[in-house]
Design goal:
By secondary structure, this protein is α/β, with parallel strands linked by helices. It contains 15 helices and 18 strands. Strand 2 and strand 3 form a beta hairpin. The structure holds zinc ion.
Length: 432
């Protein structure tokens, strides 16, 4: 069946109809971020044909009568990547995660969940995030459906790398559910019961066409966790299908166990000890720190009803997160940018995701290092380093432009997105 389609497609191309008429455009960039070298270069032109970058050249390389997009007043970047999203999940600041999950699993249809997710998906493009790594809490493969709907052009949104349901120990992350109702958890998590079951779970996910596997090394806020043997079985089976495995980890012990089992990345890692960070650096296990900025935390605590006199915990939280990030960078751990923002604090989901840039900046990361962690490094860890997160020949035409000086005025500039192209299609064009 596939072969037939391919032959048909090649026949169309040889008739020089579809292929030869792919739009060609030259994008003039006043400043261009080279994410591989982690430098800004001046006055470059990006030749885009269809959905692909064909060349990067100087202004004088533009042929006469070519279609030109003039972004000489701006800094042009590869489309940004958020490596930790939950597009199909949202809760209010006042809601308890567990109660909210049970409520939505029993009182919301898959249809309404997917439709709400599709609106959130669009908002990522508006802020220049053209790719997301979608890590579960998406029902039974609604993330895969959302990905496919975007890929086929039915709805607009970022490229999605979908994990399907999170593989987790008894109860998943949803605490407090009575034994009689544990089957509800199976609507949101793939509960693992032993080594053999772990292998079967990965194969089920492969069969549903996931892009990667997400596990809960620990189930915090719930109290169970996977064994090293189960995680090892998951990693080995996933590797056999060329899939990577990333692990939600809050405790230091669970991160240590997951790394021993061979996972590729640690998500959150709020309590990583120096010895674990060193192990991560040695084994090239990346970290997706999912902290929030001061502004975000203050807004959240207001909405959640915390007393204004009792905000000392925010300062403690920020200091602890800065310390963890500093130690990770110092030990040489690869940092991949990810937001994990699923609480509705006002604004769109895309705007909420963007808070990760502010958080890393406040914690002391340099602007270009933050950009690299949300472009080249992130793509590298998706095994897409030649396709995504870079502006170079052969890469997908995921290109954005921001107004301002990205190195000296990072926060204002990264928020001022004036142009967004994904896969050669322009979604935002507001030159100022
Ligand atoms: Zn998450």
């Amino acid at each position: 069946m596939h072969k037939l389609f391919l032959l048909l497609f090649l026949a169309l191309c040889s008739l020089a109809s579809v292929c030869a008429q792919q739009n060609e455009v030259y994008i003039k960039a006043g400043h261009l971020y080279d994410s591989e070298q982690n430098i800004i270069i001046k006055n470059k032109v990006i030749q885009v044909k269809g959905n692909t970058i064909v060349s990067i050249g100087d202004f004088n390389s533009i042929p006469k009568h070519a279609e030109i997009l003039d972004l000489t007043e701006y800094t042009v970047l590869p489309g940004l990547i958020d490596a930790h999203t939950h597009v199909l999940f949202s809760q209010d600041a006042t809601e308890d995660f567990s109660e909210h999950s049970i409520h939505s699993l029993t009182m919301e249809s898959d249809a309404i969940r997917a439709l709400r997710g599709s609106k959130r998906a669009k908002s990522y493009l508006d802020v220049g995030i053209t790719t997301v790594k979608e890590l579960g809490n998406s029902g039974l493969f609604l993330d895969v459906a959302l990905r496919d709907a975007i890929t086929e052009g039915t709805i607009e949104g970022p490229r999605i790398f979908a994990s399907g349901p999170i593989l987790a120990a008894t109860g998943g992350q949803i605490y407090g559910v009575s034994p009689k109702h544990q089957d509800l958890i199976d609507l949101e998590y793939r509960i693992i019961s032993g080594v053999e079951d772990a292998k079967i779970a990965v194969r089920e996910h492969v069969n549903q066409k996931v892009d990667l596997i997400k596990i809960c090394a620990d189930n915090i806020p719930n109290n169970t966790h996977l064994s090293i043997a189960e995680m090892k079985a998951i990693v080995e089976t996933a590797n056999g299908y060329d899939l990577t495995v990333v692990a939600h980890s809050i405790t230091n012990q669970s991160a240590w166990n997951a790394i021993q089992a061979g996972v590729h990345g640690i998500e959150h890692g709020f309590n990583l000890a120096d010895s674990t960070l060193t192990l991560m650096a040695n084994k090239k296990v990346f970290l997706v720190p999912t902290e929030n900025s001061k502004t975000y935390m203050e807004t959240y605590s207001n909405l959640a009803g915390y007393d204004d006199d009792d905000l000392g915990w925010i300062a403690n939280y920020l200091a602890r997160m800065k310390n963890r990030l500093d130690r990770a960078i110092e030990k040489g751990v690869t940092i991949v940018a990810g937001s994990d923002n699923y609480t509705d604090i006002g604004g769109t989901r895309g705007e909420s995701s963007r808070d990760m840039f502010r958080a890393y900046f406040e914690a002391g990361m340099k602007p270009l290092d933050i950009l690299q962690s949300a472009t080249y490094t992130s793509a590298l860890n998706l095994n897409k380093q030649n396709e995504l997160g870079v502006l170079k020949p052969g890469a997908k035409a995921d290109i954005i432009a921001v107004k301002g000086n990205i190195t000296t005025d990072f926060i204002t500039t990264i928020k001022d997105v004036v142009f967004v192209m994904k896969d050669g299609v322009v979604y935002v064009s507001n030159p100022k």
